[in-house]
């Protein structure tokens, strides 16, 4: 395989649900038939499918996995699996007009799901014996179910492209009936050694079964890790993510489409700050591999293929110090531990971190003074209550309180701008938004404001108005120079 000729491109679930847009804007575009190749596509499941397989990402409504993991659901997961067959074959019906192709697609996904059903029935029976504990197998079950979504979308896309005269190749990394479990890099090397990129267009499952267990670390961000490692192992010229929106200076639904601008250029440091807020351009661990191997990452809008998108590299610093993006997170829990015994006693923070780690609760920011440590966590109320109970055992004399807040950040590759903090706080005050806490590191790539949960959208709009909109013409010049 010749290195540095090809790109590796990831297509998100919302984009995948619009096959015509994917075909016309991403896969074919303005290319001649000879130019269609030297590209690898890593695809996500169709929009909403992973929610049905696992659980709804935002509401927590149970899917097949959550019902199976709940001992009280008994056979409810089986009924849900039956509904899933109809859901996925209905998607096939919208995609394939040719009844023979529809039958082929239906047969593929039905065989997968019925195979999984048989496996789960056997596992449930096995775990009815005291020597086998279901909890020990749940991560494997979660991975097996998640893989169904990407296998479905990748198989369909390859089949549809083949019908349209493109030499697409379905590359199944889900490990379905594989005889051995390989490390991720070895599995990818093996898969792509057999591919001729000069005349084949690989359509690759975003989920890859491997020894490391991608979901153990990345949970539902696993497709980004697959995408990143494929780019590294195959020595790609560029990694590209296709989303249904631009990586913009703020959420256009909050600020207004006429006021936001695509970033055009930024660096992996900014991408990490976004990931911390749950607004991933790419998972930090996935971005690390690209950065270390000096592979540029481009984020593009599926529905604006003529736009060059945003290029992310390791060495980029904006020519003038400025804020590039206003982003944030709602529904964050502040867990405050106030204990007068803390002063001068090392180790209090470590005890808190141990509790957060035990309950797998991720913190997004924290602040501390002589007798108080506050962690701002991205979690559910149920998990927060467990954390608080554990903290009360660790700190019996402490006052422990929780509060729901929002975090809003001004982020940029170089924000060494005199007076930026004063302007930001004044803008929030002018909009009657109280600042509960402020975080700014010496590295000066972000300033984080903790505010009341109800003021989230107003704060985003206020900060964008004072820190970015006056410079929008400069962004337009950057974007034009890239094009």
Automatic annotation (TrEMBL):
Entry-linked CDD domains: ACT_AK-Ectoine_1 (cd04910), ACT_AK-Ectoine_2 (cd04915)
Alphabetical UniProt keywords: ATP-binding, Kinase, Nucleotide-binding, Transferase
Keyword Lipid metabolism: no
MF terms in GO: aspartate kinase activity
Record EC number: 2.7.2.4
Recorded superkingdom: Bacteria
All residue ranges annotated as the Aspartokinase ACT domain in the record: 408-465
Domain Aspartate/glutamate/uridylate kinase: 7-301
InterPro entries registered for this protein in UniProt: AceGlu_kinase-like_sf, ACT-like_dom_sf, ACT_Aspartokinase, Asp/Glu/Uridylate_kinase
Enzyme type, top EC level: transferase
Catalysis performed (reactions): L-aspartate + ATP = 4-phospho-L-aspartate + ADP
Family: Belongs to the aspartokinase family.
The protein's name: aspartate kinase
Native source organism of the sequence: Marinobacter qingdaonensis
């Amino acid at each position: 395989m010749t290195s540095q000729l090809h790109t590796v491109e990831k297509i998100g679930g919302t984009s995948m649900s619009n096959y015509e847009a994917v075909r016309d804007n991403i896969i074919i575009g303005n290319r001649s038939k000879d130019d269609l190749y030297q590209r690898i596509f890593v695809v996500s499941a169709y929009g909403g499918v992973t929610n049905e397989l696992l659980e709804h990402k935002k509401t927590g409504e149970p899917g097949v996995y959550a019902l199976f993991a709940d001992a009280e659901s008994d056979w409810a997961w089986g009924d849900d699996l039956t509904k899933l067959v109809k859901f996925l074959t209905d998607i096939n019906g919208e995609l394939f007009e040719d009844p023979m192709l529809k039958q082929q697609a239906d047969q593929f996904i039905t065989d997968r799901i019925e195979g999984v059903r048989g496996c789960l029935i056997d596992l449930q029976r096995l775990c009815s014996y005291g020597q086998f504990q279901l909890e020990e197998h749940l991560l494997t079950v979660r991975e097996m179910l998640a893989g169904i979504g990407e296998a479905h979308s990748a198989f369909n896309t390859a089949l549809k492209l083949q019908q349209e005269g493109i030499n697409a190749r379905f590359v199944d990394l889900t490990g379905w009936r594989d005889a051995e479990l390989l490390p991720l890099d070895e599995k990818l090397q093996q898969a792509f050694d057999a591919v001729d990129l000069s005349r084949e267009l690989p359509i690759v499952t975003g989920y890859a079964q491997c020894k490391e267990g991608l979901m153990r670390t990345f949970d539902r961000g696993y497709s980004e890790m697959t995408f990143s490692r494929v780019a590294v192992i195959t020595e790609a010229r560029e990694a590209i993510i296709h989303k249904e929106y631009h990586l913009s200076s703020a959420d256009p639904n909050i600020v207004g489409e006429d006021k936001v601008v695509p970033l055009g250029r930024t660096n992996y440091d900014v991408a990490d700050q976004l990931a911390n807020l749950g607004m991933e351009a790419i998972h930090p661990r996935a971005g690390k591999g690209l950065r270390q191997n000096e592979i540029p990452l481009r984020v593009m809008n599926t529905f604006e293929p003529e736009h060059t998108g945003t290029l992310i590299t390791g060495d980029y610093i904006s020519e003038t110090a400025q804020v590039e993006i206003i982003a944030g997170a709602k529904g964050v829990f502040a867990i405050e531990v106030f204990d007068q015994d803390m002063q001068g006693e090392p180790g209090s923070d470590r005890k808190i971190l141990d509790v957060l780690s035990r309950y797998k609760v991720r913190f997004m920011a924290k602040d501390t003074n002589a007798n108080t440590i506050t962690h701002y966590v991205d979690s559910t109320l149920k998990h927060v209550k467990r954390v608080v109970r554990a903290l009360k055992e660790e700190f019996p004399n402490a006052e422990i309180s929780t509060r729901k807040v929002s975090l809003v950040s001004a982020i940029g590759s170089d924000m060494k701008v005199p007076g930026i903090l004063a302007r930001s706080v004044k803008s929030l005050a002018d909009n009657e938004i109280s600042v509960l806490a402020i975080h700014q590191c010496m590295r000066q790539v972000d300033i984080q404001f903790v505010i009341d949960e109800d003021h989230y959208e107003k704060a985003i709009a206020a900060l964008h108005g004072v820190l970015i909109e006056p410079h929008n013409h400069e962004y337009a010049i950057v974007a034009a120079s890239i094009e």
